[in-house]
Design goal:
Blueprint (H helix, E strand, L loop, with lengths): L2 E5 L3 E6 L4 E3 L6 H4 L3 E3 L5 H4 L2 H10 L6 E5 L3 H15 L6 E5 L4 E3 L5 E6 L7 E12 L8 H9 L5 E11 L6 H5 L1 H4 L3 E5 L9 H6 L5 H5 L10 E5 L7 H11 L2 H4 L2 E3 L3
Parallel strand pairs: 3-4, 4-5, 5-6, 10-11, 11-12, 12-13
Antiparallel strand pairs: 1-2, 2-3, 7-8, 8-9, 9-10
Bound molecules: zinc ion.
Length: 266
């Protein structure tokens, strides 16, 4: 289940209650105050502007300090913003920063982890993929007696194969190029992809120049989503009402792709 809200240029906060993590804090929906772990994609105001409010509000409600994962290059300016709010709010604004570079991982609740990857926007941007490690008995031990397995385990022999399953990926603000380069979001059980522009009022070239995805690029490249379980289209520009957006998306997506699409609309 995915909660929160994502409207291009206004606000993005994607809440994943089952994974106990949220992505970005533009404005902060009430549900996200409960989230201690936040993964930031980039530092545009509509994706990070809510952080001081989130931090202070958690403290007011007696919740533990949040943990903010963000790209290393934002640390210094973010620290200055929080210091300014410490002075203005006369509060400690306590939080933990986890600074990452593409490829780094952050441990999440319930043994899961999030690995970040480089997205292609007009400012430094990360995508995030939540991975779950699943263990399967090694082929050599299938059908073996319990004694054999216990003995092998006792002798320190590995009895399981581990595989990482990409259960949820979010590319942040990006152009479609991220999917050509990154394998994880292409294999995600649920992929949330921005689709800021959906008709010819802003065409593909202009969408790309603004660092965003145009619907025509998604409908024209269905093969990019062959391995994706559910494709969630998000971050639509507010120039279309949710109803108008739904009609355009329904009409322009190829039927096979539309069948696995969900729309993250207000
Ligand atoms: Zn942006």
């Amino acid at each position: 289940m995915v909660g929160g809200l994502s409207i291009g240029g206004l606000e993005t906060c994607v809440d994943l209650p089952e994974l106990r993590v949220a992505i970005d804090l533009g404005r902060v929906p009430d549900v996200a105050v409960a989230r201690a772990d936040i993964l930031f994609t980039h530092a545009h105001m509509d994706h990070m502007g809510g952080a001081p409010w989130h931090c202070a509000t958690r403290s007011l409600r007696g919740l533990p300090p949040p943990r903010y994962a963000m790209e290393r290059c934002h640390a210094e300016a973010f620290g200055r913003v929080m210091q300014a709010w410490r002075e203005l709010d006369r509060s400690a604004m306590e939080h933990e920063l986890v600074l990452v570079s593409p490829g780094d991982e952050v441990a999440l609740a319930a043994g899961r982890k999030a690995r970040c990857f480089r997205s292609t926007h007009i400012v430094p941007t990360l995508g995030w993929c939540v991975l779950e490690t699943r263990r399967k008995l090694k082929r050599a031990f299938i059908g073996a007696s319990r004694d054999t397995i216990v003995r092998a385990k006792g002798a320190g022999e590995p009895i399981h194969d581990e595989t990482e399953v990409p259960i949820f990926a979010h590319c942040g603000d990006t152009t479609i190029d991220v999917l050509e380069r990154e394998e994880l979001p292409r294999r995600a059980q649920v992929l949330m992809l921005e689709c800021t522009f959906i008709d010819e009022s802003i065409g593909v070239a202009e969408a790309r120049a603004r660092g965003h995805v145009h619907l025509d690029e998604i409908s024209g490249r269905p093969e990019l989503f062959d391995e994706v379980g559910t494709l969630v289209l998000s971050h639509l520009s507010p120039r279309w009402s949710p109803r108008a957006a739904r009609a355009i998306l329904d009409e322009r997506l190829p039927p096979a792709l539309r069948a696995k699409c969900a729309y993250f609309l207000p």
